[in-house]
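Data deposition worksheet. Section B asks for the primary sequence of the deposited chain exactly as it was used as input, without tags or linkers unless they were present during the calculation. Section C holds the resulting structure in C-alpha cell form. Section D is free text for depositor observations; keep each observation to a single sentence. Incomplete worksheets are returned to the depositor.
Section A, Depositor: J.P.
Section B:
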Amino acid sequence: MGTRNRWLMGAAGVAALPMAVSQAWAQQAAPAATPQAALTAAEKESAKKIYFERCAGCHGVLRKGATGKNLEPHWSKKDKEGNVTEGGTVKLGQSRLEKIIGYGTDGGMVNFDDILTKEEINLMARYIQNTPDVPPEYSFKDTMDSWKMIVPVDQRPKKQMNKLNLKNVFSVTLRDTGEVALIDGDTKEIVSIVKTGYAVHISRLSASGRYVYVIGRDGRLSLIDLWMEKPAVVAEVKIGFDARSVDTSKFKGFEDKYAIAGSYWPPQYVIMDGDTLKPRKVVSTRGMTVDGEYHPEPRVASIVASFIKPEWVVNIKETGQILLVDYSDIENLKTTTISSAKFLHDGGWDASKRYFLVAANASNKIAAVDTKTGKLAALVDTAKIPHPGRGANFTHPKFGPVWATGHLGADVVTLISTPSDEKKNAQYKQNNWKVVQEVKHVPGNLFVKTHPKSKHLWADSPQNPDKTLAESVSVWDMADLSKPKAVINVAKDSGLPETKATKRAVHPEYSADGKEVWISLWGGKTDQSAIVVYDDATLKVKKVITDPKMITPTGKFNVYNTQHDIY
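Section C:
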C-alpha cells in the first residue's frame, strides 16, 4: 500500500488523523537529529502529532514560518546590503525554547503550559531542533478517491423540513472533537452536533443560505444541508492534509454551482461542484514570491467570493500573491495575479463589497484589492501583525467609512479609511487607504466585529499571555472612540468554575438582527466550555449556553451574516 493510501485510511477518523500524518511523514528520509535534541522513534511520532494539531497553522508544515516564527533548526537571510543574519531553533537552545512554548510571547504565541504537560513541552522543544520531514503530495486522484456522496441531490428535501429560523442559526466549531454544533439563535438550543474534520477553521454559506461548508485542518470538507429535518452532512471530500479555507460561487447565475477550498499542504486549491463536492479541478499554488524567490510551501490562506464578478479572491500566504480566479469557465480557467506583500492571511470586504482587504500580517501591511478593476488598490502600513478575521466596517464620526483590524503583535485596533461612491462621503476621499486612527487595545487580538445595526465595536484578545486579558473582550462606542472602552470578563460572566486552563474569550459574532453578540469561551479539552450571549445595547449577559457535548467551542458563524458577508 502506498503512502497516500495509508494517509487516506488513517485520516478516515478525526482522532486518527494526526497519527496518519505521522505515519506518512515517517516514510520520508529525515536527517539525523542533533545530539542535544535526540528523539526516539516513539517520541518523534508523538511530537509530529502535536505539531500538526497545534503548531503547523502558524509556523507551516515545513516550519518556514508565516504568522508564526521560522522554526527550522538553522536559517539564514540576506538583506539588501548583503548582510547575512543567521538563526534557528538550535541557536535558541532547549531551555529558551521550553520557556517560549510554555509561557508564550507578547507577539501572539499562546502559553502552552496549560495545554501541554512539562514532558510534552520538553519534547516539542527537542522536536523543532530537528530537520522537518517533508509530507507526501496529494493528487486529483487522491481527492476523487476521498469523495463521499452521503445523500444524493435527488434524495434531499425539496423544501425546508424543519421549523428553524435558518437566518439565525449559528455554526459553532467544537475544535478538539472534530465537530460542528448547529445552534438555534432564537432559542439558544443545540439543534444538531455534526461530525466533521478535525479543528474546523471556518464555516461558509452557499449563496442560497441552504448549505453550510465547513473545513477542518485535516483537509476534510463537509457539506451540511440545513433543510433536512435534522441538519446533517450530505457530502464530504478531503482536499489535502492541512487546510483552512472554503467558499462558494456567489455571482448571479452561479449560486450554489461551485465550491472552492484551499489547502495548506499540499499548497493548492480544489474546485468542486457546489451541491455534491465532486472534485472538478486541482490547481497548485507553488511559485515565486513577490520578492522573486521560489517558495515550496505557498499555502492558500483566505478565500472569498466576489459579489460583482464570477470570481474568487484567493490569497496565497507565503508568496504574497492574490489570485482572482474566474469560475465562469472552469475548463478554461482564467486567473489574474496581483502582487501585494508576503504572508497573506485573513481579511474581509469593505462596506461596498468592491474592495477586499487582507492582512499581510508578517509584513505588517494590509493589502486592498479592487475586484472591479482587478488591480491592487493600496498597500497600507500598519502596526505589528495585523489579524482582522473579516475585519469590521462602520462610519467613523470624523473620517467616514472605515474598516478595522486588530493585531496579534500590537496594542491597537487600526482604522483604515475606505472609498465610497456616495456623495455624502466625498469629503473623506483624501483619507482613503490611510490609517486614520489607532484605538488603544492589547496585543493578542484575533477578531474585531461590528454590525450595521450596532453602535459598538467588539474585539477579543485570546492570544494575550495574561490570563485575565485572554478571558476578556473590549467594547467601544463607535460614536465616540475617545470614551474609555468597556472591558468585559467573559469567563467570570459565564459562571463556570475556575480551572487552571485559560478560558480564552474568542470570536465575537452577531445575531442576524445585530442585537446580540456571541462569545466563545475556549477552555481546556477536559474543562467545561460555554458560549456567552450578550445584549449588544446594554452589554449585559442574556444567556450562557453550555452542554457536556459542547467541547472547546471557537469560531461561530451566523448563517445570515456569513451568507451576506456582514461585519
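Section D:
The two ends are 48 Å apart (CA to CA).
The longest strand covers residues 258-265.
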